[in-house]
Amino acid sequence: MKNVTDSFVSLGHWPSAGSFGFNTDILATNLINLSVVLGVLVFFGKGVLSDLLDNRKQRILNTIRNSEELRGGAIEQLEKARTRLRKVEMEADQFRVNGYSEIERERLNFINSTSKTLKQLENYKNETINFEQQRAINQVRQRVFQQALQGALGTLSSCLNNELHLRTIRANIGILGAITD
């Protein structure tokens, strides 16, 4: 500051001016004025400018720090999401494999169950057919036996008279008596 005031004092002693007064040389006065303004600005504005620059620097550093923290959080979330995605993909693959296995198992169970049911139905059908055949055979036997019996009775009653009838009865009784002894 002392240099600035010395320059003002020394300007007053210029030989062309002769004494203290106003300098009307515009170029010389503008340079002096500019240097005075710049000197005052530098001297008084240095602290304000320094504070402004420090604040700006702190805001930039805080912004960078926050950005780094957000970046770190985003990377962490991305890794978690990737881990969850891999886990879900593995579970989906496992469900898919288990689903296919379950479907195949159910298909085989269904085929086996249907095969058993068909075999049982075939057995029931065969048993029903055999039963109906036996029943039909028994009915035919009964009819044949009844017809043979009726025919034999008819033949016997027409051929036998009382004497022949009595001899046949005695012969049968004799055969029965020989069997029981």
UniProtKB/TrEMBL annotation:
Gene Ontology CC entries for this record: proton-transporting ATP synthase complex
Predominant subcellular localization, coarse grouping: membrane
Coiled-coil segments on the chain, per record: 71-98
Matches recorded under CDD domains: ATP-synt_Fo_b
Residue ranges crossing the lipid bilayer per the database entry: 26-49
InterPro entries associated with the record: ATP_synth_b/b'su_bac/chlpt
Localisation: Membrane
Molecular-function annotations in GO: proton transmembrane transporter activity
GO BP term, pick one: proton motive force-driven ATP synthesis
Bilayer topology: Single-pass membrane protein
Keyword Transferase: no
Keywords on record: ATP synthesis, CF(0), Coiled coil, Hydrogen ion transport, Ion transport, Membrane, Plastid, Transmembrane, Transmembrane helix, Transport
Family of the protein in this entry: Belongs to the ATPase B chain family.
PANTHER family recorded: ATP SYNTHASE SUBUNIT B, CHLOROPLASTIC (PTHR34264)
Function: F(1)F(0) ATP synthase produces ATP from ADP in the presence of a proton or sodium gradient. F-type ATPases consist of two structural domains, F(1) containing the extramembraneous catalytic core and F(0) containing the membrane proton channel, linked together by a central stalk and a peripheral stalk. During catalysis, ATP synthesis in the catalytic domain of F(1) is coupled via a rotary mechanism of the central stalk subunits to proton translocation.
Name of the protein in question: ATP synthase CF0 B subunit
Organism, as annotated: Daucus glochidiatus
Recorded name of the encoding gene: atpF
